[in-house]
């Protein structure tokens, strides 16, 4: 018996095309890997490569965007203050004048600290290492030879090609080394370092306290204006003469006030219509006023956003200060703690002393005068030679 099998000529064409595509794809991958082979290639390297355009943009344009950010902070802060006086003060004055006086005094104290610390954070240089580290002034301008301190550089900056003291790092935006560098803040258009770190942190702290104060003082206004939306009969763009008066409908179907009473009694005297006029609260006026209502919405969105943004930053920096670290050192020390079991930060003197050093509460300075009130005192030391747990200097607090 003969078996005849028919084989179509195009039966294996699809499989051949598939194998050819797979072979070409693998060949392209092998070629790309061969041309880009690097024994140092890793996931971190690839991420850094992809982030390079962002780094380039920040390095070249952050210094110009910083001025825009400073302008935006100034405008937003001014708007919040203006709306607080325009909307909040009449509301609280109607409720209780004594409470209004307290709120004005307390709010202006916060505003004074916010303005002062922000201004000082913007104009105060973070501190830069001198070109020659062999001679450094200990207390201002030296008058005697014993007032000169001989120092040694901790390392050499690869970008500045200059000696770099301890705790000093290079800022790519400022393009120079910063003493005790924490980070570059675009909202200050300045680096946060040894000489202005206190201004930066107290600005954030007082700003957080200020917006929290506004939220607490204005939560009832927001509830009545945005949630209840009680206008008390006041309609925007309506004739205020309609309130508290009898009304009638004219031929066009529009309500008009009845101001002239044509009814007479038995002796031809006009009748008296003493209609009760409902009291209108300040909250109802705010709800009926279109621009004041928008101001309440603006305040709510702005203040809640600032609380969420600054709340985390204040807590994060407070942890770093308590451990005697900057933001840069916190990242470096976190890696050292994983590799070294007995690692100890040489600048950690305990929470209390770390805060005293950071706030500059040395040489008889007090918390009441130099923290609760604006103070332009500088930090202890020079920023070039630091206190350590193994070596304390003469001006130890």
UniProtKB/TrEMBL annotation:
GO cellular component, one term: membrane
Pfam families noted in UniProt: DHHC (PF01529)
Catalysed reactions, semicolon-separated: L-cysteinyl-[protein] + hexadecanoyl-CoA = S-hexadecanoyl-L-cysteinyl-[protein] + CoA
EC annotation from Swiss-Prot or TrEMBL: 2.3.1.225
UniProt domain comment: The DHHC domain is required for palmitoyltransferase activity.
Name this protein carries in UniProt: Palmitoyltransferase
Enzyme class per UniProt: transferase
Highest taxon listed in the record's lineage: Eukaryota
Organism field: Manduca sexta
Mode of membrane association: Multi-pass membrane protein
Broad class of where this protein is predominantly found: membrane
Location in or out of the cell: Membrane
Keyword Ligase: no
InterPro entries: Palmitoyltrfase_DHHC, PFA4/ZDH16/20/ERF2-like
GO molecular function, one term: protein-cysteine S-palmitoyltransferase activity
